[in-house]
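Memo to structure team: turn this sequence into structure tokens by end of day. - J.P.
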Amino acid sequence: MPGFFHLSNPKKQLISESLSYLTPTPPLFSFQECLWFLDRNYDDIMHRILPDAVIKPIRIAGQPVLVKISQVDSNLHIEVLRGTITDEAALIQYVRDLFDLDTDLAPFYKLLRSDQELAFMADEYCGLRLIGIPDLFEALCWSIIGQQINLSFAYKLKRRLVETLGERIDWQDETYYLFPEPRQVAMVEPAALRELQFSERKAQYLITIARAFSTGEVSKEQLSTLSTPEAMIRQLTSYKGIGEWTANYALMKSLKVATCVPYGDVGLYNALHKVKGLARRPERAELDLVFSNFCGWEAYLTFYLWRTLSKPDLPSVAP
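Reply from structure team:
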């Protein structure tokens, strides 16, 4: 996918005595659709949603900052609420990665409209971006946490982990938490995570991958140097607790690898059963046949199919 906007001379403003930045949004962008995805009635501790903005704690150049992101005309407005920015370009790029602003969705929508059963998504979800998790360690931990449990319980486990180990930022009588850094998780004993209701296996998996990140054995930068998505998946799946689903999920959310399909994802299968009439657990060949018409957009198609799960009135297609 070609880059659509580039990070060049972001506008900087001082608004209400707060350091603020503006970065342009592409034509096919809906901030409200993106906010909807971030606020799906789950207890997500990593951000707070307002009617027209999101407040999120992040790390920029290793420093914790609290930002408020909203839309102003054809720009995203990034207001620094707490913390010191030492790398303005990194802050802007983090937000652009979070909302995937550098992807031109027009080719994807053209493919959607060529599929009779999927065409509605190009209109109903127009402007929805593949909301990312820029921190690869967080993306991997989150996918490990979510393995084989329902989303509500997964969010509860994440909240417990973050509140116990994560760094906090206080602002206007509210507390915001950053996801723990690898070194913080690496030093924890499995028994401590068991007290938070993590299974023994998940506790071990989280600590193992945290230690790999802490020693530099694996990192987002190092993974990005590998020549193919298959090579990235092979490296990640060499660690216990990271299977094909976990690796694909983390790569599509953090590195925005466009060809990733989280095989085995129940939500994906439910969506394809609803809109395509596939079996509840389709054969891999059936799945690949659907995705073969969206080469280079597999991750986006997955994301939009997940979006359809919010439509209980969506008519089923007869198998």
